[in-house]
Design a protein that fits this description.
It contains 15 helices and 21 strands. By secondary structure, it is an alpha+beta fold. The strands form five sheets. Strands 17-14-16-15-19-20-18-21 form an eight-stranded antiparallel sheet, sandwiched between helices. Strands 7-8-12-10-11 form a five-stranded antiparallel sheet. Strands 1-4-6-5 form a four-stranded mixed sheet, with helices on one face. A hairpin with a 5-residue loop joins strand 10 (about 150-155) and strand 11. The longest helix has 25 residues, at about 255-280.
Length: about 450
């Protein structure tokens, strides 16, 4: 602990906090105060003071959730100063990081040490606690969401206590808190399993909708990581296959990477969506232009440079997890709904998979899972599209992504998750006074 912190252990507090907004701009909150603790002891003091003042307390990450999971009118905890790598243990195959550490920071630090996570999502701007608490995932035949790679965590509970848990230490807490929705306490640190750094051979290929759906089971079975995007108003898809390889290392050239991943995927796509927002009738033509502008490419690189990409075009998103066996029927119904409607959808629909895991409120809890994500460009109408999509997802036993828009309530969630009662019983024990509640948690978990 440095000298300044030892003499002034109080967290930074903004007595007149501004309105908090998420990344997409669709969620705002006016907290009573905003605090930025720089240590676990400061975080514990924040929780104790909130209890003394009778205020709810919520931690936020980088605001990449589209739901109101982190919004509060009480005490808002920013994680900026509670960040950094605590320890990397190559022999044990673990890394321990502070809760506010960004995935990008962790991934880069691991790569420098010749290590990597097994799987990850497609962006890495989120904090580790924010990403895992809402169930952020990538795609993988045998490797699950980021939370499934957690081997231990620290949780500051409602009375300011520090609770450590793992598969062998407080295992009932570990079973729930890896995807805790912020309902059980505030995560202060996480330990992840890591492995020696490996290479992924990435192959991206345009395919028709009928081609990719007809071969979906084969593509899933024969690739370590498979996903695809379908562009509404077209029959065009782009299929992404990532597989482990011994090399050689053959990354994209700097100019090619900038042109395809920054200029085309962000700058040009942003411009096309802006046109579509102004002239909705042009959206089908824009979808054809966007989808036909994608070409096949192959490259080999370290995991985070393959799994993740820059996403700068702001949008609103809904995503549901359905049983993997139901994904094609679900997707075909979604496609038919869009085609018979007058909806104008300029963003592609994304399809990914993960294996079953053992986390109580993980969207893959207890079942092999496929995800279908629908998006609209920020500022374009989304309510009717999302309502119609959600009706289809729900009909196929869908579970909503906790960090994305949905309208499900506690009665639905209790039916969708066999371990719901286990989670809420633990919540009653750890937070009986609902210090960590907000409107979102009251809706999805009950009071």
């Amino acid at each position: 602990m440095d000298t300044l912190r030892s003499h002034d252990p109080r967290p930074r507090t903004n007595p007149k906090p501004d309105t908090w907004r998420n990344w997409a701009g669709n969620v705002t909150a006016r907290p009573t105060r905003v605090v930025s603790p720089s240590s676990v002891e400061e975080l514990r003091a924040v929780v104790r003071r909130a209890a003394e003042d009778g205020l709810p307390v919520k931690a936020v990450g980088t605001g990449h959730s589209f739901s109101t999971a982190a919004a509060t009118d009480g005490v808002l905890v920013r994680p900026d100063r509670l960040s950094g790598i605590r320890a990397i243990d190559p022999e044990a195959g673990t890394v321990t990081v502070e809760a506010g550490t960004r995935l990008k920071t962790m991934n880069m630090a691991l790569a420098r040490q010749g290590l990597s996570l097994t799987n990850m999502g497609d962006i890495m701007e989120q904090t580790v606690a924010g990403a895992t608490s809402t169930g952020t995932h990538g795609t993988g035949r045998a490797s699950g969401a980021i939370a499934a790679q957690i081997r231990g965590l620290e949780l500051v509970t409602a009375d300011g206590s520090l609770l450590r848990c793992s598969a062998s230490l407080n295992p009932e807490v570990f079973a729930a808190a890896r995807v805790g929705l912020g309902a059980l306490g505030i995560v202060s640190a996480l330990t992840f399993a890591v492995e020696p750094l490996f290479l992924l051979a990435a192959h991206e290929e345009p395919m028709t909708f009928d081609m990719v759906t007809a071969s979906f089971d084969e593509l899933h079975a024969h690739n370590d990581h498979f996903e695809f995007y379908w562009f509404p108003h077209t029959d065009n898809c782009i299929a992404l296959r990532n597989n482990r390889t011994v090399g050689p290392h053959a990354p994209l050239g700097r100019l090619k990477a900038w042109f395809e991943d920054e200029f085309l995927a962000n700058t040009v796509f942003q411009a096309l969506n802006s046109v579509g927002r102004t002239v909705p009738a042009a959206v089908p033509a824009i979808a054809r232009i966007a989808s036909q502008g994608l070409s096949a490419r192959t490259y080999t690189d370290i995991p985070y440079k393959v799994f993740t990409s820059p996403r700068r075009v702001r949008m609103i998103e809904m995503e549901y997890a359905v049983p993997r066996a139901a994904v094609l029927d679900t997707l075909r119904e979604l496609k038919a709904m869009i085609e018979r409607s007058d909806l104008r959808i300029s963003f592609p629909v994304e399809v990914r998979t993960t294996p079953a895991d053992d986390i109580a409120l993980s969207t893959a809890s207890g079942r092999d899972t496929a995800y279908i994500a629908v998006h609209v460009y920020r500022g374009m109408p989304h309510h009717r599209y999302f309502a119609e999509a959600e009706r289809i997802f729900v009909a196929h036993e869908g579970r909503p992504h906790w960090g994305k828009l949905h309208t499900r309530d506690a009665a639905y969630v209790a039916n969708a998750y066999p371990r719901f009662d286990e989670f809420t019983a633990l919540r009653d024990r750890l937070d009986p006074d609902r210090r960590f509640t907000n409107a979102y948690l009251r809706r999805v978990l009950g009071d």
